[in-house]
Amino acid sequence: MKKILITGAGGFIGGFLVEEALKRNYEVYAGIRSTSSKTYLTHPDIKFLNVDLSDKNVLCEKLRTFDKFDYVIHNAGITKALKKEDFDKVNFKSTQNLIEALNETVGFPDKFIYISSLEAFGPGNEDTLQPIKDSDDPKPISKYGESKLKAERYIKSIETLPHLIFRPTGVYGPREKDYFLLYKGVKMGIETYVGTSEQYITFIYVKDLARLIFDAVESTVSGKSYFATDLKQYTAKEFNNVVKEQLNKKTIRIIFPKLFVKTLAFINEKIYSVFRKVPTLNTEKYKIISCKNWLCDSSAIRNDFGFIPKYDLKKGIKEAITWYKKEKLL
Question: What does pTM read for this prediction?
């Protein structure tokens, strides 16, 4: 039985990666922090590795108690931060710590999968609406994106590390929190946009993403990076229309001016900082939601791994909303 370590296992994507690993009969080690939720990590076969990736010495001590992992999926990271420098500390430095600790203790795995983000490349051209390609020059516009790109470049610099990098786009599904707020808005009869309803976006359902990652783990491909989508393109209006259909709701459409949203994000951030919290709408988030073109070319995942999504937006949102309703959240 192959051994796999999945960091960030207590998070949204991490939980589904663990489920896919168990389904494929891996010996699963869930990498979590002491404060991580285990709500969806209840399977009796899951083994836990409680560790703080910010401390390489402690991480080394922990890893010395294990044998080599066949595979590592590094999914841990943060998308929101009270201090902007925390993005670099968590998303880049912790990645560096993990790789160095593996090298100094149990050795590199047969394959190291890094879960990056489309934000590592930044948005595409708003005039041409051309999809972003892996061959393009990355131009991240957020501290989160910069930290992810920095981690990618570090991974690529290590010639002896067999790796694959995946940059998911909008990942949605049960247990997710940000799109859930949009569902709640639609349920209340409000459909909102920033600047325009013609924002061009891409998505991938969380179960499809987990399946893609493990197809890649089990492939012979190494040393490459990919954008991960459901191979389709959408607009923000299309997304809301699907949500309205699934919730059987009519809405009032509100297009907020960018300056208004930017100001609100700034005020939100200042108020929440008093309580040492980060609001969903913050200045970093504004940079992302105010861009018009988040299209990308993900054809390589079909070419290299034979990826065919099982979920389009309609099927995925239907399953997600059904789950939220079952949990009495919608």
Answer: 0.95
At 3, is the secondary structure helix, strand, or coil? Answer: strand
Range list of H helices, the chain: 12-23, 56-63, 85-87, 94-104, 143-157, 178-187, 206-217, 236-247, 258-274, 283-289, 299-305, 313-326
d(CA 124, CA 153) in angstroms, rounded, equals: 20
How many Å apart are CA 327 and CA 40, to the nearest integer?
13
Length of the chain: 330
CA angle in degrees (0–180, nearest 5) for 308-116-6: 85
CA dist 59 → 51, 72, 105 (Å): 6, 15, 10
b/e 141-156 (16+ beta carbons within 10 angstroms → b):
bbbbbbbbbbbbebbe
Looking up tokens 């201090």 gives: 83
- Model confidence over 131-167: pLDDT tens digits? 999 999 999 999 999 999 999 999 999 999 999 999 9
What sign does the dihedral 288-294-300-306 (CA atoms) show? positive
